[in-house]
């Protein structure tokens, strides 16, 4: 009885993995030109100054909403930033397996 349940669970996992791997991928948008990138950066304004002067709690929330996880390494005097987008390129929220099973 236990083996039958385990086999069924493994088959379901395999089926889900196959569905994910075989799902159609969203079409990539065309690459931006250097002028488009410069325009976008210009539209952001002086974001560096804004972030530099932000309250630490506000900055933490900004990073959280952008899906950024900065970690300071004092021995190297460097910050490592890990990007974990909270949505895909279509704005659909991403759900990790851990969040899904919780």
UniProtKB/TrEMBL annotation:
GO molecular function annotation: aminoacyl-tRNA ligase activity
Keyword entries, A-Z: Aminoacyl-tRNA synthetase, Ligase
Presence of keyword Aminoacyl-tRNA synthetase: yes
Disordered: region residues: 82-102
Superkingdom of the organism of origin: Bacteria
Protein name: Phenylalanyl-tRNA synthetase beta subunit
Natural source organism: Actinoplanes lobatus
Taxonomic classification: Bacteria, Bacillati, Actinomycetota, Actinomycetes, Micromonosporales
């Amino acid at each position: 009885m236990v083996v039958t349940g385990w086999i069924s669970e493994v088959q379901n996992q395999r089926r889900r993995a196959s569905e994910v791997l075989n799902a159609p991928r969203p079409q990539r948008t065309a690459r931006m030109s250097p002028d488009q990138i410069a325009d976008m950066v210009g539209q952001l304004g002086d974001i560096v100054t804004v972030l530099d002067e932000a309250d630490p709690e506000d900055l933490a929330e900004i990073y959280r909403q952008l899906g950024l996880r900065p970690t300071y390494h004092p021995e190297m005097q460097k910050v490592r930033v890990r990007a974990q987008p909270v949505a895909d390129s279509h704005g659909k929220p991403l759900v990790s397996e851990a969040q899904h099973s919780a």
